[in-house]
Amino acid sequence: MLDHKLLLNMLFSGSRKVIEHQEELNAINVFPVPDGDTGSNLSYLMRTILQDAYISDDASESLTSLKKAALRGSRGNSGMIFSQFLIHLANGISVKNIHDSNDFISVCELATGKTYDSVMSPEEGTVLTVMKEWVLAMKETAAAHTNVPSLIFGSLPHVYQSLEKTKLKMEEVSGRKVVDSGAKGFVYFLEGLIQPHNQSESIVTKQSIPAFGDHIFSKEELLSHRYCTEFMIKGISDSSKIKEVAGSLVDSVVVAGDEQQLKVHFHTNEPHKAVELMSKFGTVSFQKVEDMKRQYESIHARKSKIALVVDSACDLPEEFMDHHQIHMLPAIIEMDQSPYLDKLTLKPENFYNRLEQAEKAPKTSQPGLEQIIRTYEQLAKHYDHILSIHVSKELSGTFESCRLAAAQVNPEKITVLNTKTLSGAYGLLIHSVAEKLDEGASLDELIQLTEELTAKAEILVSVPTLKHMIRGGRVTPLQGKIATMLKMKPIVSVDEQGKSKLYGKTFFRNSNLKKMFSMIGHLDKTKQITQYVVLHANDPDKAALCAEEMKNLTGIAPLYTANVSPVIGAHAGKGSVSVAMLFDKPKYERSF
After folding, report:
1. 3-state SS string over 86-99?
2. β-pair type (227-234, 250-257)
3. CA atoms of 559 and 337, how far apart (whole Å)
């Protein structure tokens, strides 16, 4: 009889086996996109299971811990498929006592069927086929085996043949003769299940690991959908409703979970529209978006040996970010009980109207430590060094989280810098650093340039109301109370340490803008403006007027004009406008 304790011990052993082969699985990952992370995604799932699932005397409690861990740890196409199989395997075990091999086969067949159902467009010749043919192999050999470990061992020759056949599918989609990465991960998992019972050498590991070939993927092959996206949704149990409406917007749909909650995986070019769609089905309690284009570039098309990392408080045009292969860590914005990813699942264009209507202030927080570590680990495999430059540590915990992550991953290979500023000033700084990086500047030269520009960057923000800054804690209660009582509309900036600071004491918006341009004129005379950008909170007309005024004042056009990121706009409010500048000399001392 297979009880829940033996099952979980077998699953733990299978999990460790997959983790051992993480890099091999990454190396052969070409489907559904060649982003080289199948091994990482499967290993993340397995580590979550090893960490969070546990064995107790209560079978229901143990199996529930497994299901929760599988759902929580699922990521990526193969990870989601694997997770769905494990969840329904646990469901089957919980309602059916496994007395013999036939009982086990019955549960695995049900779990495989549910896994097929979870994928909107199942692809044969992948992990799904190997799962199905594994069940068929167990059926054919069941009579010869008296226990489950023996049954699994007896099915392996058929599984190896099925795995080998996936080469045909992979050659068809990628031009490379490799087995499917997710399928191979599943085979390693099966081997691991019986490892404590069978110490013979693995057959599948005898195969050589194919190096990534010279096949060049076209943009159509690689970028039909750019973002690998996952959402956790509470309040819905019918996955068919999601799949019915998802096809027009997304691809590679996999829905995992059960009646408690669902996790949805898909590829899309518009994560912000996808989350709006998913929100109609229930509360979106978790969001993850990975840029497969940037992942592919890291592995196969690096422009430099140094990876440049920023956070989403850096306001730069998307085209510039793409051209210079800049990696972004999105901040988190909580609105309406859902956590959104700044600039990915929450775009400026649809954020500001929601901000004005919100009864409660959005809560903003730095990228999660786990996400930062994962980003650093991926980049450290493919770059000689990582230069991670971030928003002022006085305004966000991002800098400290990145320092902590760097210390855990590889402190010798990761440099974390504090810009002491934000938004457009941060963007101007990164603009210069990225261009120097493209010119071949060394790491030491880039660090020195960052430090020099930090002292020369300035930003002035004209806000229509201090309501959002008070609610978000960016202005002290005393400052906010006085400014509100006097109906002040001050100019907001940052001081030498990177803290928020208020300038100006005007009462009307027009005089507020005049005051800001007067301050800028004074700065241009004492410390010449060499570059500037104009940022706006969903008010392009006002930004255009400011750009024209700045051109008249300085004689130069803005480097760019952009909509400010939601994580910054959450504290400034709709209609805010700002000018960020670089000077020819350090900005201190001021004399406004």
Report:
1. HHHHHHHHHHCCEC
2. unpaired
3. 37
